[in-house]
Write a sequence for this structure.
């Protein structure tokens, strides 16, 4: 607000000293509009999770969720990365489009399997898009939107 007042005073003084041309008036207006837009967009704090990987839920995030009362993996994913649970549209009349869930490299089923699945021993959760998910074992001819891969502490894998 103080910055805006200073800019307005400076503009008033500049206008009093010289009468600008029409082109100069447009330029001054454009500079003012840009300055106001930048000032309006400037945030005062950091966004939560600004540097989070959108395709990975880390062990630290899982532990934080456990401390905040999250009961199962479905609730965790729904809170942290709800996009993972969504399918855009049906791709086939004969086959359901789904998000597959894997435990390490074993297919468990669809996202409903995450309901009631405890956070214990889960190291990370990783989301794979459709192209990556098609490379997982057990997909077959299913129409897969993506896959959520649960990596357990004992299971290892590429979840770090």
């Amino acid at each position: 607000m103080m910055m805006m007042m200073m800019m307005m005073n400076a503009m008033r003084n500049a206008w009093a000293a010289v009468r600008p041309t029409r082109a100069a008036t447009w330029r001054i207006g454009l500079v003012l509009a840009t300055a106001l837009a930048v000032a309006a967009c400037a945030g005062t704090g950091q966004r939560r999770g600004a540097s989070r990987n959108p395709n990975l839920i880390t062990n630290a995030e899982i532990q934080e969720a456990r401390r905040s009362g999250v009961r199962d993996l479905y609730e965790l994913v729904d809170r942290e990365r709800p996009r993972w649970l969504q399918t855009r549209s049906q791709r086939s009349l004969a086959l359901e489009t789904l998000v597959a869930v894997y435990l390490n490299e074993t297919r468990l089923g669809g996202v409903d399997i995450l309901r009631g699945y405890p956070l214990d021993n889960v190291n990370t959760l990783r989301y794979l898009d459709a192209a990556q998910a098609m490379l997982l074992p057990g997909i077959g001819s299913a129409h897969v939107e993506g896959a959520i891969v649960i990596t357990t502490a004992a299971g290892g894998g590429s979840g770090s």
